[in-house]
Amino acid sequence: MFKRVVLFLRPEEPRHASCTWRTVAEILEHHGANIHIAEDQRAGQRQNNQAPEELQRCDLVIAVGGDGTLLHAARVLNQYASAPGSGNDTDVNAQQPPLNPPLLGINTGRLGFLTDIPKEHLGTTLEKVLAGAYSIEQRSILDCRALHGKTPICKQIAVNDVGVFKRKASLIDLETWIDGRLVLRERADGVIVSTPTGSTAYAMAGGGPILHPRLHALELVPICPLTLSHRPLVLPGDSQLSFRIAGHDQVLAALTCDGYVVTESLRPGDEVHVKAIPEALRLLHPDGYDYYRSLRDKLNWGAQPC
After folding, report:
1. How far does CA 109 lie from the centroid of its chain?
2. DSSP three-state, residue 75
3. Pair (238, 122) in one structural domain
4. Which of 100, 132, 164 is the C-terminal boundary of a domain?
5. Does residue 109 share a domain with residue 20?
6. What's the start-to-end Cα distance of the chain, in Å?
7. Is 303 part of a structural domain of the chain?
8. Which residues contact 278 (CB under 8 A, 6 or more apart)?
9. Cα atoms in the Cβ-side hemisphere of radius 13 Å centred on 74
10. Which positions of the chain have pLDDT values less than 50?
11. Candidate list 67, 116, 161, 173, residue with the active-site label
12. Do 147 and 270 reside in the same domain of the chain?
């Protein structure tokens, strides 16, 4: 069924991951698949806008590692979907990016909200997936662009969240705009914009609610605001958010996408613009996947106290 498969591996633990990915490769080869190992590249630092041939031709991507490995794979795929000349640079709401193979996660990490298959059940579960026992779920991602006036500073894709944070002990002054309307000015450690997928990540740690992944919504979570009244907001999925670094002090701020630092040199007057790209990510789940069971298992819901 899947004849061209690209594997993304977890680079930090090559010895630990080696046995797992070789098992994956053996199973895929047994089913007649042609396998490629993705080259080591950081999303957003491509040398050109041309996707590698193995990504252009693949019909399945497998991330072997933790959630970070899967997030990296998703960003690599979507960086080409949003590259100039791909047809999506000006229309980030395109429904079908040029590179959109399904993405399957095999968990060799810790929590694994996105990597569905534990390595202990790798063989039987992957065999069933290759036999057609799976479902595909479409999820939104975030398009993030930083500007100094009208001059672009950087742009990036995020699956979980975009964050604007202080770099040092001093708070940063932030203006938050939604759909061209000023929402608030505040001093804080930072702010997070999250997709429903990312609502179980940093946003949850910051006190935000868990959003079901089928919701077309965004989540705005302040980080340690210097006020008692600012609470997380759930917004329509087509909202366009802007953050302006305010104040007169030359306090630098950092921009992160899925925890990856994109820049650490945002200055007063710089702006960060964030909006969703709907249905840009296709997650492949093994048959029987249950989102609520995943929450129950990962967050220890219902566990009896010692």
Report:
1. 16
2. helix
3. no
4. 132
5. yes
6. 47
7. no
8. 93, 95, 140, 216, 237
9. 32
10. 15-17, 41-47, 83-97
11. 67
12. yes
Which pLDDT score, from 0 to 100, does residue 286 have? 96
Amino acid at 10: R
Cα gap 123→126, rounded to integer Å: 5
Chain segment 218-261, per-residue pLDDT in tens: 999 999 999 888 899 999 999 999 999 998 777 789 999 999 99
In this prediction the pTM is: 0.87
Two structure tokens written together for 75 = 């960003």
- Residue 245 φ then ψ, to 5°: -75, 115
Cα–Cα distance, 33 to 53 (Å, whole number): 16
Place of tokens 């940093």: 202
* Rounded Cα gap, residues 110 and 60, in angstroms: 23
pLDDT digits (tens, 9 = 90+) for 132-146: 999 999 999 999 999
Tokens of 26: 């053996």
> Nearest CA to 104 among 82, 80, 126?
126
Q: Is 279 left (phi over 0), alpha (psi -120 to 50) or beta?
A: left
Number of domains in the chain: 2
What is the model's pLDDT at position 88? 47
Residue 62: strand, helix, or coil: strand
Instruction: Kindly state whether residue 199 falls inside one of the protein's structural domains.
Output: yes
69 and 108 part of one domain:
yes
Told to judge if 143 belongs to the known catalytic residues of this protein, a careful annotator would answer: no
Whether 284 maps to a domain, the answer reads no
Strand partners, 118: 107
